[in-house]
Amino acid sequence: MRIAIIGAGAIGGVFAWYLAPHCDLVIVDQWADHVAALNRDGLHCERDGVTKARRVRAVSDPALAFPAQLALVLVKAHQTTWAAEACAAALAPDGLAYTLQNGLGNHEVLAAELGATRVGQGVTTLGGTLLGPGRVRHAGMGATTLSLTPNSAQANALADLLNQAGLPTSITGDLDTLIWGKLIVNVGINAITALLRVRNGVLAENSAARSLLGAVVTEAVGVAAAQGITLPYTDTVAHVLQVARATAANQSSMLQDRLRGAPTEIATINGAIVALGAKLGIPTPYNATLVALITALETSQGEGG
Hints:
Layout: E1 2-6, H1 10-19, E2 24-28, H2 32-41, E3 43-47, E4 50-54, E5 58-59, E6 68-73, H3 80-90, E7 91-99, H4 106-114, E8 119-124, E9 127-132, E10 135-140, E11 144-147, H5 152-164, E12 169-172, H6 175-196, H7 202-205, H8 207-226, H9 236-246, H10 253-260, H11 270-280, H12 285-299
Parallel strand pairs: 1-2, 1-6, 2-5, 3-10, 6-7, 7-8, 11-12
Antiparallel strand pairs: 3-4, 8-11, 9-10
Helix pairs in contact: 3-4, 6-8, 6-9, 6-10, 6-12, 8-9, 8-11, 11-12
């Protein structure tokens, strides 16, 4: 089976490293230095202080990945339009794209290009950090869950492959619960850590940060309830704080983006809560403030400094 990894950043790189020995893998990425390093030196993955390299094939032109049976989309939200076009070029006519991205709205962008019957969705809690061209760190093992739709046979084949590669994966018919469960964790952790420039654990230790996290998460829970979403945990704030403690040494993906001076996914995380809240008539002032602050950072001079 040929698998195309669309975007081999932090999480995409971790998936690629685990999958490389188990399938015909092709990495598709826009970063020329990254592609060159992957082809020249292999993909280096650090875990628990030990770094191992695996040979991989990487391309900048997605047409060179054709014909892929499955594509895993792991780019940042602002790159999803490019990823949709890349999937169209890389996939075989009956091929399926799975988005494992953060936030809301990515599935719709992919479906607009490929058609809804060719796009699946998943949630992963793997932790990763992009260290440089050709180099990633696996920051922590986590479960991956795939939607049964739109093609159960392909979903099962992908789940079997991921499990074989050592990445715990399951399938569900109720992915919305998990998508919102992860979204609300990201809502509570990502923007605050990016603004404070701290690792996740500080949010559980600092009383002011903990209070802000609680306010932001409570707003998001209200929006989820109005959408008819059942969350996979009862005490939501306690759950998000537990995640912050469990990943205390990790830098959130949004903090990593800010430290690199790269665009963040604020629009599809806290911004999604604000947009849905406005549509439903639910005030979300804390989330709106975080969106405004991150946006101001991204558009100000000295970005990334």
